[in-house]
Amino acid sequence: MKNIIIGAAALLLIGIGGYYLYKNYSGDSGVVMSPAATTDAQKPSDTKPTPIPPVAKPVNKDQSVIGRSVESREILAYHYGVGDTELLFVGGIHGGYEWNTALVAYEMMDYLKANPSVIPKNLKVTVIPVLNPDGLFSVVGMAGRFTPSDVSPSQATVISGRLNANTIDLNRNFDCDWQSVGVWQDKKVSGGSTAFSEPESLAMKNYVETNKPKAVIVWYSAVGGVFASNCHNGVLPETRALTNTYAKASGYPAYESFDYYKITGDMVNWLAKNNIPAISVLLTNHTDTEWEKNKAGIEALFEYYSK
User: Fold this and answer.
1) Where is the composition biased (Polar residues) (predicted)?
2) Whole-prediction pTM value?
3) Is residue 215 part of a domain?
């Protein structure tokens, strides 16, 4: 009888030990966790999740995520052509306030998809249709492709859509004459806490520095003209050629610089500071894409860079 009792006690101890190991085994890692570690792992974290870094992530060979906005919306780049010389086109830096700049980028994407042969074999064309997806979303209420009928009828909403979700003007957040407080027309706007403080402008910086495009074309509205870039080092000869080529083909007037009011932290001027030819194409108003004019300018650049 005594041996039976001892045997039963031993089996009970073995069972308890096995149950303990089972409860504290951490998945497929092969690690046995202490009771304290198990408790800590089950506690909710007191820290905010680490934001996704704004670096290019392939989606497929024709599309990549170059970063995420303040509200974690994807900033997408679409790629066309197979050449080694990259031309980069950017719309929607001012989100919902300049929503037609995103639409002209989408029209370009439609055109390139339907007519791939227009891209010279030595070129790769990248289109970032919306650099400020949060500002655009606040005005059109959706991510991705939209129509003019989706735009909010509230003028106050449209104007506020110029800024990102941190109420920063992204075109005052780049490193050329950056200031924490910039100017838009006769109004003061925030340029952020530092240059590239915003995930959207940082995503653009990372993309440019990684991919080194040959030239960059950025759509804005609304003046009606093609403006060269410059950050106190003069207009690059290639930038001047870029400006005149696009202007002549499109019918927009060409300008050496934007002198309507002082701009700090401007994206194309930052590109100029880094010796990358860049132009601002300002649509004539805030509603029309003026696609035929812009198509002519785009095709002229394709011809220019095919040589």
Assistant:
1) 36-48
2) 0.81
3) yes
